[in-house]
Amino acid sequence: MKHSSYLILACCLALATGCELQETNIDPNVPVDVPLQTLLPPAEQSVANFLSGDAAVIAGIFSQYFVGFDALVQPLDRYVVDNDFFMRPIWQDLYATSLVTLDLIVEKAETQQSPHYAGVGKTLLALCLGAASSLWGDIPYSEALQGDENLNPAYDSQEIVYQEVQRLLEEAIVDLSAEESVFSPGDDDLLLGGNLERWKKAASTLKARFYLHIVKRSPSAAEQALNALAEGIDDPAGDLRYTYNAQEFNPWFRYQQSTPNIRIDPLFRDLVDDDPREGALIKVTFGEARIGPFYASETSPLFLISYVEARFLEAEALLRTAKPGAQQALDEAVRTHIDLVTGGETPPAEIDDYLAANVQLTGSLEEDLQIVLTQKHIASFTTIEGWTDFRRTGYPILPPNADGLNPQNPNGEIPRRFPYPLSEELFNAQVPTPLPGLQDRFWWDQ
Known about the structure:
Layout: H1 10-16, H2 36-52, H3 54-62, E1 66-68, H4 74-77, H5 87-111, H6 115-136, E2 139-140, E3 155-156, H7 158-176, H8 196-213, H9 221-229, E4 240-242, H10 251-258, E5 262-264, H11 266-271, H12 278-281, E6 282-285, E7 288-291, H13 293-296, E8 302-305, H14 307-320, H15 326-341, H16 348-358, H17 365-379, H18 385-393, H19 422-427
Antiparallel strand pairs: 1-5, 2-3, 4-8, 6-7
Helix pairs in contact: 2-5, 2-6, 5-6, 6-7, 6-8, 7-8, 8-9, 8-14, 9-14, 14-15, 14-17, 15-17, 17-18
């Protein structure tokens, strides 16, 4: 099935939208009578767009994957974040497109006795909510998505949002296991082609991801993550990925072609120096280091949750619960990622040498967490998860940018959160007051 062609580039999105309404409640004119099989493809595309747009660029700069190259993006290197130009399109992608369409899919699926569609919708809804809360903390949800019925939706606490994420994923797994469904996804499912077993495993792996997000707050998070991973993705073929094609190029490819205003951070180049993956992750052209061919070619896939991440989550959770097997899980994660990004062309002996030199656990919890999270940081390149992992664990150790001290970021440290968009400040009376700053830590970061 051909993808639709309206994928919007990260930085171009902010220029393309002129809407002055409060995005949390924008009715995106999604026709309510459209069949489920017609709603699902653009919904999946919108999720990919949300996770690969400005949010990934900004998180990538904060996690030192990228540096800004021109006047538009360079302020982000100094931790100056325009809460209108940058935040508004991300918020609009989330609320005016992704969440409202997914919510409609779930509602229609339940009305039409089609739990398989409901399970897919709930999985993606949980993914978006968890990702959004990892960026902003408290967000509107329980009173959002109501259009003109509520123009001032209350903000749900991050703790409540994460509980809702787990509830949605649990319900999704039940729905996807239903023996009967009037309608079921097939070729219209651009992510997994209607494979319900793979959707269940993806949902379980997302449960593990979001459990470990709250590891500072929940003593049982690591154990819960392991329980979820027991039913999670167990093969690279089960990766939840959005695949691009000649009708719809990969957004990082398009971004670098049309708005080439980021380069690879020298710290990340140093991290992967002499790494077998270096040439796949980074491409140097005329002395400028950019995102490499694996992540930024015309048809490079976008990974929403993967087997590689599942094994990294497993390694971390095993370490935190003092259970055996962390080294095996870590080796499998790194080996699989090397094979993946290099197309299987790295000789096994070379991978063995890399593992022996860089991926050997020591028996000290903090040292071992640093090894696991540093390797996961490499494998999370171009995603928002690298920044999330740094904030929740402190690893990898990243020095703040030297010129990051400013009124918006008064201590000069790496930001802990996104600012709320100006549209929320202006149009939603329920926006948190006082507005949190970039260094105000939300619930799971305390």
